[in-house]
Amino acid sequence: MNAADTAWVLVCAALVLFMVPGLAMFYGGMVPARNVLTMMLQNTIPLGIITLTWVLAGYTLAFSNNGNSLVGEFDAAALIDVDTPQFHTVAAGVTIPALAFVAYQMMFAIITPALLTGATAGRLKFAGWTVFLAAWSLIVYPQVARWLWHPKGWLVQLGAQDWAGGMVVHASAGAAAIAVLLVVGRRRGWPTPKTSPNNLPLMLAGAGILWFGWFGFNAGDGLQANAVAAQAMINTHVAGGAAMLTWLLVERLRSGHSTLVGAASGAIAGLATITPCAGFVGTGAALLIGLIAGCACCFAVGIKHMLHYDDALDVIAVHFVGGILGSLLLGFFADSSVNALSEDGVFTGGGGLLLWHQIVALLCVVLFSFVLSWVIAMIIDRTMGLREPGPEQEDLDRDQQGAAGYALSGTTARATSSARSSEDGLFTSRSTDGRLDPPEYLISAVVNTHRIDGLRDALLMAGARSLELADASVYTGTVHTEVFRGEARKLDFEDRLRVQAGVDSDHEEAVVAVLKRFGAEPGSIYRLAVTQY
Fold first, then answer.
1. Which sign, positive or negative, has the C-alpha torsion 330, 333, 334, 338?
2. Is the confidence at residue 337, as pLDDT, over 90?
């Protein structure tokens, strides 16, 4: 056994595993606040379900030494008797433990179906999704992996190439996403957007983790720590950076804005597109592939409006189009001087044979994944249900988990000096027990301030007997525009702070004066007489 190669493959397996929470954060940041936990759990649960299906049957179906060119046998079921496999077809002379290979390939099996949740965001029942995961990880994924990543695979024998999953991962997951979308349909109220992404910084953190993990995804696929791994790593990074820049440029030309969402989406598009090519092309080709990917995938976002399908987070435009594009571009840029196991492409003197093999392989993988995914989804939907009813889609976190992703508002979650000062005895001379001395009036106002500590303390010092602070969306009548994935959203609500203070007649004027000092518009200040029940 080669210790360096073994260590490298184990590290890369951990990097691919790390992509799963990264994907959860990436998707979770772009969905509405009331659906964030549901989205993140849909991406996390494959870690449990597919780990079991892979160990029990998935691995042996994909990489059994026995079996034929279409499907493996059960000689390695439950990993009871795992022989040294006929290793991944992109490597030669591999000397690593069989279980290192099992673990590395397991991580690919886990993250592949998780990709499609971005397309179906806001619509899936959790129980139905878990059953779909289990079925898909046994009926669809292992077969496609065998066809392209096992030396006996019929697409390998044909001459098709897929370094790290342009077809096995991205094209198959994208085809499955289309199939599931046909079953679960559109979100309630689509295409009119009712909500905005809940946390774009979370999205960026997830995108960063995905980029980081992609080095294990692509650079580890040769199963050796060698020059090809180094080439795959640099190709991965170069393509991601190039695609990010071209996506931002296209965004700028089309909408006048270059956005954070566009930067993250462009990077992911470039990483997905270089995936089938990473160990088969040179650095210059990787740069060109990234530039093409950023432009093509950005334009592909608009296809959903032309064809009227509701791909919530543009999985089809980024992963499906990226995987297909990269697999086809490999037919042009593949270079045997970079990797002796590769055929040459159109631009490197190999003619069009490899390109033809790539086209045939893509058609077979896409049709196979689409048809079987549609059958699986349809059976689940007709029996236990796969689509959440319309009203429940507005608050999936409460409906499915009985919890909220953001239990406290931005106001009440912050520690304030008033809370500390009460411990110090600053307000102990004045009773705050409404049963002993109830307020006479309730003063309500909307303020535009981020000085929450100062406002709260000033109101209490001015004589407020009770105090409530809450985030509010206030209709202003002034329309402003937000841009999400190149789509302009017209909004006429703005974020404000709602303040309600209970006061007696002696302190009413002082409390109102404080509210005005902190930016409350006079027209937003109201006084209501308090009626005790």
1. negative
2. yes
Q: Packing angle between helix 172-184 and helix 353-383, nearest 10 degrees?
A: 30
Q: Which three-class secondary structure state does DSSP give residue 251? A: helix
Closest CA to 35 of 123, 153, 145, 94: 123
Q: How far is CA 253 from CA 229, 305, 486, in A?
A: 37, 19, 10
Contact assessment for residue 173 and residue 115, using Cβ atoms and an 8 Å cutoff: yes
With 0-12 / 13-18 / 19 or more C-beta atoms within 10 angstroms meaning exposed / middle / buried, residue 43 is buried
Angle, CA 520 vertex, CA 515 and CA 524 arms, to 5°: 115
The CA distance from 467 to 497, in Å, is 13
Query: Residue 27's pLDDT is what?
Result: 97
Quick check: 298 and 313 in contact, CB under 8 A? no
What pLDDT score was predicted for residue 415? 44
- Is there a cis peptide before residue 191, judged by omega within 30 degrees of 0? yes
Amino acid identity for residue 14 in this structure: A
Torsion sign across C-alpha atoms 351, 355, 360, 361: positive
424 three-class SS: helix
441: tokens are 């009036």
How is residue 153 written in tokens? 């695979």
Residue with tokens 């990489």: 63
User: Burial level of 71, CB count in 10 A (0-12/13-18/19+)?
Assistant: middle
Q: Which residue has the higher pLDDT, 414 or 156?
A: 156
Cα–Cα separations (whole angstroms), residue 490 to 116, 343, 448: 28, 51, 21
Residue type for position 242: A
pTM of the prediction?
Answer: 0.83
CB within 8 Å of 232: residues ≥ 6 apart:
163, 164, 218, 219, 221, 222, 278, 279
Element (H, E) at 351: none
Residue pointed to by tokens 């206030």: 474
The dihedrals phi and psi of 268, each to the nearest 5 degrees, come to -65, -40
CB 53 within 8 A of CB 41: no
Lowest-pLDDT range of 314-323, 339-348, 459-468: 459-468
Residue scoring higher pLDDT (50 or 465): 50
353 and 159 in contact (C-beta within 8 Å)?
A: yes
HSE (side-chain half, CA atoms, 13 Å) at 150: 27
Contact 137, 105 (CB under 8 A): no
